[in-house]
Structure formats: structure tokens, C-alpha cells
Amino acid sequence: MKLAELQKTLALSLLQREPNPVAATLASGSARLSPLEQVEIYREQFWLRHIACLTEDFPTVRALTGDAAFDALCRSYLEAFPPAHFMLRELGRNFAEFLARAQGDALLAEVARVEWAFIDAFDAAEAPALDPAAIAAATDDDWPLSRIRLHPSITLLDLSWPADALREEHARGEPVSRPERSPRRLVVHRRARQLYAEHEPESAFAVLVALAAGATLEAACAHASDAEDKIGEWFSRWAALGYVAAVTFPERELTAASR
Amino acid sequence: MGFRDRHQVPDLGIGVGFRPKHAADILQGNGWSQVDWFEVISENFMVGGGVPIENLERLRAVRPVVPHGVSLSIGAVEALDEDYLVRLGALTKRLAPPWFSDHACFCRAAGRDLHDLLPLPHTREAIALVVERIKRVQGEIGRPLALENVSSYLTYETSEMPEWEFISEIAERADCGLLLDVNNIYVSARNHGFDASRYVDAIPADRVLQIHLAGHTDNGTYLLDTHSDHVSDPVWELYARAIKRTGPVSTLIEWDESIPTWEVLVSETERARRERGGALP
Known about the structure:
Distance between the termini of chain B: 21 Å
Number of domains of chain A: 1
Number of domains of chain B: 1
Oligomer: heterodimer
Largest interface: A-B, 48 and 50 residues
Largest sheet of chain B: 8 strands, parallel
Shape of chain A: elongated
Number of helices of chain B: 10
CATH topology of chain B: TIM Barrel
Helix content of chain A: 40-55%
CATH class of chain B: Alpha Beta
Structural class of chain A: alpha+beta
Radius of gyration of chain A: 24 Å
């Protein structure tokens, strides 16, 4: 058998839920293991390794579903989204989408979204927070067309359930159960090695979403009726929390490095 | 002149694989000073920033750090992942290590990444493929690759030669280094019924840039390379045999499951230091 066919046959057999006798024809066996038993070691390790990874990444989802149901969810997910990226770290990137679309469980999907946001925040690129004093020189005329670049660690989450509270309760070792709806807007981000989930008012969150999409400050503020009055207060708070990585004015960009 | 001399590959002494569990012991205390060097899993540091990159920067400021990959998939028929090579290039540029390492295996096939070190059949076809890919990767990274022998639980009908001939021929034709994992040799020897000493005696000693030591688990009908325990006595014996052939080469303890305290890990490096010293003339 040519190498390409051998590798394809073995790889696809490891993704199966049940032993695959076809793959066993590749193996020669040993004094203590049959050909099928040799291949089975790798197939079993495939499932153990990937389910362990999802278990580590989504502990609150697991706490809500129970161990057996979570195991079944993982197996279905791995069939729907077979691992394709070279980094195991990327394995759960589609888990929330899978829970929402394939399983139709919006609560679990939101919890997965929050847990994944923390993973992304953990190792996102660095961008020193902008010093509010550094932008003091900007004039009032500069601001409407400015663009605010958010810190790379930020994920903006518009949630219907208290998924962040569930995550915290589970992290403290408390039992968790399916809660009542409780809409909230979260900013998950990293600041000085620590990870946070900040709550934002609905109108401020709408402005952040628009800014994250690349809108100018003026265009972003059009998404919130009270933005004109509050944007100064919001911006100061965002800068203090480390949300703001850079501000670009029509003719120049201010970053922490600009100081 | 041997491979190590040609590439001025240093003996870094005795090191350990850096694991987040020990970050505080190593970086906040003075744990780093208790070992000579560190190895990091390359893929864990192919990220944008955050704690992993901060730790890496602090680590490399105090000790040599060598990247050890698990996903290069050097033996896959599928094309090398260009994004992987870019990230590996950035990591080696950041660390400026004397070599980088990965495994003689394949991880990718059929568009999937199995995140496993799947063994290659020991065939002429596989040798030709791996040799060409190593040449390209070494050229792009600009440093010697140390190719590691894997633990295996599977033997192929199509294999044409023993593993030591397979690895040796790849190293000679690709002109690369070797990372000799003596625990992997022992595990595979027990699983497949070959003589581990014969393997150690056959490899081109001047190409060995590094040696791995680790513990394994006896699952009854086979040994599993779990990195979850102390190095076993037969593996220490094999290590001494290898050192007699290679001379003093950089040695590293891997411990990835049931990770012990930093003190226990350091004591394992002290054992390695004694074993290495005892094996040298």
C-alpha cells in the first residue's frame, strides 16, 4: 500500500466510534497484540485526548450537562467538527456554534461562548493600554472621525442567560443548574495577566460593538440614544479598564507607544 | 567533523520540559537556577501573547530555551502547513535556540489533524518523503532539526527495515540531527519485541543533539508512553549506554501527566546528572 493511502486509511479509522477492521489490515500485529488491537490503541487515545481537551476548556458546560451527556456531546461535536487545526488549543472553537445549531441549546451555547472568550483572552496578542493622558491633546473636532481599536483580548458577548455567573459559581466549586433568563452584555478581556468579564450597559455595549466593527466614533455613537451625553464618561472608563488599544484620528494614530 | 561540531551544537546540560504548573516555582522563586535549560512545547507558544508569552520571555532571559514541536507532521503526505512554518519561524527567531525538534511521525491526513504522533511505515517511500521535507524545514528555519524517534504501538505490514535503520538513513540523507528518546526506544522495544540496545548502538551518535528521558505506564499487553512517572531503571541503563556512545549531550526530563512537585522534578534531573556523569569516561 502506498504511503498516502495508508495515512488516509489510518487517520479516518481513528475518527470512527467503533473499531475498524479495514485499518487493521495495515498492521502486522505483535506477539502480544493483534493487528486490530494495535490500531485500537490509537483510536481510543484519539477520543480520550480530544474529549479531555474539551473537558478542560468547557468545565461549566460539563457541570450543567453531567459527565455522561457531556461525553456524548463531545463525540457528536468531534464528528461534526473533526479536528483540523495543528493546535489542540483550537479544538473547541466551534463548540458554542455546535451547541446552538446542532443541539438547539441556547443556554449551553452561551456558556460555551463565555468559556471560549476566556480562552481567547488568555493568550491573545498584547497591546499596552492607552494612557488617557496621551490623547488629551486631541481637539473636539478630531473625535467624530476617530476610530477606537479595542484590545485584542476583548470578546463582546450579548447574552440572554447569566452564563458568566454560572462560570464563576462553578469555578468556586458550587453546584450549578439551568438558570432563568437574565440578559446581559459582557466584555471579556485581559488586563495585567488577569482575565475579567465586565458588564456594560446596553447602549454602551452597542457603541463598543460598532467600534469593534471599525466604525468611526460618530457613527458608533449613532447606535445609542444617550451616547452624546455619556461617551466621555464611557471612554474614560474603557480606557481605565484597558479596553482601548489605540485611537486613530484622521491624520494620526495614538497608541501606548506614542507616548 | 561530526554533525554537532559542524553546527557548533552545545551541551546544555540537564533540563526539564517547562510546564505551567511549575511556572511560579521556576519564575517567581529561583527554581530556574536548579536546572541548566528548558524545553517548551512549540505549539503552546504559537499564540499572540498573554501569560504564555510573558513566561517564555522571562524564561529565556535566564536559561536557554529549546522549542519542541508535536505538530510539524514531517512524515505526512499532505503538504506542510505554511501557517505552522511561519509561526515556528517566529518562535525560533524569538528564542534563538541551538536547534529545534519534532517527531518522526505524521499527525495530519485526510484533512484532519489527529494530534497524535502516528508512526510511519519504515519504507523507502517514507524515507524519501521525510528527507525532502526536513531539508525544506531546516532551510526555512535556518537551524538544525533534531528528529525524535516516537513511541509506537503499531507495526506495519509494509515496513521494510527496523526503525533504527529508518531513522539513521533519514538523518544521514537529510543531514539533520536526532533527538534520541531512550524511553521511547524502550517502550517500542517492549511493544514490538526488538532489542533496545541494538537500536541505541546503531544510531549515528554524532547526530544526537539531545536525549529525552521520561516515565511510562505498563498497561499489561503493552507499554504506554505517558510521561507520568519516574524514569524506570531499564531506561536509565539505556541512557547510560547511549551517553557512552554520544558523549555529553543535552538531556531533558519530560513529565506531562501526574505532574509532581518542582522539587521531585529537580531530584529527577539530579539523578540524570549522576547517571550521565557515571557513564562518561
